[in-house]
Amino acid sequence: MKAKNVVWFTLIIMALIGTSCRSPKPISENFSFYSDVYTLYTKANEFDTNTKKYIKNKYLVDLLVNASKNEQLGLYHQAIVDLLDALRFDTSKVILFGLARNFYFIEKYTLAFDYGIRSYLLDSNFIPTIELLAWTLLERNQFKEAIFFSNRLIKLKGRNLTQNDLKLHLNILDRLDNTYKSSIDFLTSIQEPKFEDFINSQLIYYYFLNNDTNNIINVVEKIFSNKEKIQDERYILLDLYIRNLINKGEYQKALQKFEELSERTSSENNLKLCDIFIQNLKRIDSTNPGFIKEFDGLINRKYQNDFRFHFKLLQMYFILDDTSKVYSISNKILSNDNIDLETLINVSYILYYNLKLKNEAIQKFQSFKFKFLDEPIFYNVLGEFYVNNKEYALAENAFLKSLQLDSNNYQTYSNLAWLYSETEEWDKSDSLYMRSLELFPDNPITLNNFAYSLIQRGKNLNYAGKLIEKAIKLRPDDPNLLDTYGWYFYKINDFEKAKEYIEKSISLDSSRAEPFLHLSLILRKLGREEEANYNFEKAISIDPNNKEILQELERQKK
After folding, report:
1. Domain assignment present for 532
2. What DSSP state is assigned to residue 18?
3. What is the model's pLDDT at position 223?
4. I need a surface site. Which of 95, 275, 316, 386 has the fewest CB within 10 A?
């Protein structure tokens, strides 16, 4: 069956997966203790008169400088060699720490721990070593020991804590308590304003993992309690907030908060929030039938002249099958001179295919000709309407105009091929399908339509089979493609397989006439006359003027 461009609204289900503070082994640049060994050594020994002689030792100084340079260059093995040599002159906490750190970088965690603990035993308040030991024990999955050093790190650093320190601590807590209660308690105990954004985002993440809708809502409301403009990067929080209110069944509050918060964010974000209501519309309408009226009022009150929001309203009424409202809003959108091409096409499709107002759709679509004079897709869609209206000369002119504007548009070649298949100019049709596939070999619609054209004529069925098989791999649940695949098996006399794919096609979309016609012919071949007759009558009831049905009726008369 030829695949047509029909209107459908994709319901996007967003999986709101937070970004955990967990990370793989941190790289050296992320360590808060990343000072070079030489600098750490001179600081640690600045007031220790007993070690000044080592600073004066030119060889030791060279070793520490070289170790620092090698470490910064990522030459950790060479840094270890330098530090082991330096250890002969001084077994200080800094050199031991340096060795531990470089062994950590090459993932030798046992050696990292051994040198780290020797450094710690020399000075249990030396923060770089304590932090390194916490990371090392984390990598060794010794979480109880790791939390000891992480707790000590937090106590020693006090108000000098960094976000990386918090991440380290949460990394360990998450592994000790998979309910995340310890992590949540830790975050809520921190009162430092500089960490507020980080803490809120992590709390939302943990509440999300625990499916704790109430606390997600509480945290987001706290974030948005000020009156500042909501930046685009925070849209995900708006999205999460509205979704959770809807999930709780608080539809009125969701709509109220949408109206309030819409003043503080961009219209693009508000359009995306409208989509959340659209995705949940049937559930909302079933328990709150007055909702759509309130949403309608909100859109007309706040966005009276913005066609984009009226299109969202149209989508809602389309889902609810309110054709009267769909028609009136379509006309309102199409009377807006600021309409963009995508919206024009979508609304015109609704008029043409769904409301069956074919001539009106073409007339209104054509009225924007001068606005979209240089847009190939405008003429493509216009040509499509004309083909479906069997106005083939006008369709040909539209497609050729599209090619003048863009001679490499695969869609135009495919549509022109479709036109010539309708007028049975097979050579032209086949060459244009092949040209379209040269430009875009993986277009499932072109693959399907070319295959269907060949199958209908019984021409080059092996090639047709390869085309439709490729299309099915690209789009395995497309009812049009499944119908073509079934029809291919019918043509090669594999009636059981033909029946399987046609029935699957009908199960996915029972609104089309051709699959019922095809199924009736397959069943007749299988000797199931009563079922064949039922499906044939079903096909006629859906589209009595269908070209294939009329041809079959003529055959039956002979």
Report:
1. yes
2. -
3. 87
4. 275
With contact defined as beta carbons under 8 Å apart, do 42 and 55 qualify?
yes
Contact 395, 419 (CB under 8 A): yes
pLDDT number for residue 554: 82
- pLDDT at residue number 43: 74
Instruction: Report the domain count for the chain.
Output: 3
SS3 at position 558: coil
DSSP string spanning 384-438? HHHHHTT-HHHHHHHHHHHHHH-TT-HHHHHHHHHHHHHTT-HHHHHHHHHHHHH
Tokens representing 104 are: 């950590």
Query: For residue 50, what is the DSSP state?
Result: G
- Same domain? For 327 and 300 the reply is no
Tell me how crowded residue 205 is: count the other CB atoms within 10 A of its CB.
20
In-domain check, residue 422: no
Residue 520 · residue 533 · CB < 8 Å? yes
Torsion angle in degrees (nearest 10) through CA of 32, 36, 41, 47? -70
* DSSP secondary structure of 83-144: HHHHHTT---HHHHHHHHHHHHHTT-HHHHHHHHHHHHHH-TT-HHHHHHHHHHHHHTT-HH
Task: Look at residue 553 in the predicted model and tell me its pLDDT.
Answer: 84
Instruction: Give the chain's end-to-end CA distance (angstroms, integer).
Output: 25
Three-state SS letters, 22-41: CCCCCCHHHCCCCCCHHHHH
**Torsion over CA of 171, 175, 177 and 182, rounded to 10 degrees?**
-10
pLDDT of residue 46: 57
Low-confidence ranges of the chain (pLDDT < 50): 4-20, 22-32, 47-49
Domain closes at, from 278, 304, 330 = 304
Whether residue 278 sits in one domain with residue 246: yes
- Regarding whether 326 and 300 lie in a shared domain, the answer is no
Residue with structure tokens 């987001």?
A: 220
The model carries a pTM of 0.73
> Tell me, what's the pLDDT at 56?
61
**Which of 451, 346, 352 is closest to 2 using CA atoms?**
451
Residue 443's nearest CA partner among 486, 403, 479, 412 is: 412
Is 242 found in the same domain as 279?
A: yes
